[in-house]
Design a protein that fits this description.
Residues 26-159 form the Fimbrial-type adhesion domain. InterPro entries: Adhesion_dom_fimbrial (IPR000259), Adhesion_dom_fimbrial_sf (IPR036937), Adhesion_dom_sf (IPR008966), Bact_Fimbrial_Adh_Pro (IPR050263). It comes from Pseudomonas fungipugnans. Helices cover 8% and strands 27% of the residues. It has 159 residues and is mainly β. The strands form three sheets. Strands 2, 5, 6, 7 and 9 form a five-stranded antiparallel sheet that branches. The protein has a three-stranded antiparallel sheet with strand order 8-4-10, with no helix packed on it. The longest helix has 12 residues, at 3-14. The protein is elongated, with a radius of gyration of 30 Å.
């Protein structure tokens, strides 16, 4: 095809004399919010270790179960439910929440496996993981008698 015949074909097509097919395409859908969830009806979950011996903190003794329930509204979509515990980790253990005593942390477990802070875990609403906590101390430290507290947020959310 010569240069002039290409130009003539282009001119014919540009004024609509070339045949072609076209179709309109439409897109639609519905945006849905995940159903709301609550943990223990929004109440604070408290775990009391009682009296803890300063020389007995070994990451095993004083282990406690964290009792909690998750309730979510009904949904027609298969949402992915995730659970996380958000808080400040100790400098010596990323699965332990920092307490008010610098050398002491509260290690978290989900189904007997260390549960890393601020890291979501995929779960099912019908069988949420068992959560446990235990006091741990910084290796090589000596704990002095003191009251201690720690705070974290248990978060269940759909993705």
């Amino acid at each position: 095809m010569t240069f002039w015949s290409q130009r003539a074909l282009l001119a014919l097509c540009s004024i609509g004399l070339c045949s072609g097919a076209s179709a309109n395409v439409t897109f639609s859908g519905t945006l849905n919010e995940p159903p709301p969830c609550t943990i223990d009806s929004g109440s604070t979950i408290e775990v009391d270790f009682g009296d803890v011996g300063t020389k007995r903190v070994d990451g095993v003794k004083y282990r406690r179960t964290v009792g909690y329930t998750i309730r979510c509204g009904p949904s027609t979509l298969p949402w992915l439910l995730r659970l996380s515990i958000n808080g400040t980790a100790t400098t010596f253990d990323n699965t332990a929440v920092q307490t008010s005593v610098p050398e002491l942390g509260i290690r978290l477990f989900q189904n007997n496996v260390p549960f890393r802070l601020n890291t979501p875990l995929d779960i099912t609403l019908s069988s949420p993981p068992t959560l446990e906590v235990v006091p741990v101390k910084q290796p090589g430290s000596v704990l002095a008698p003191a009251r201690f507290t720690a705070v974290a947020t248990l978060l269940a959310e759909y993705q």
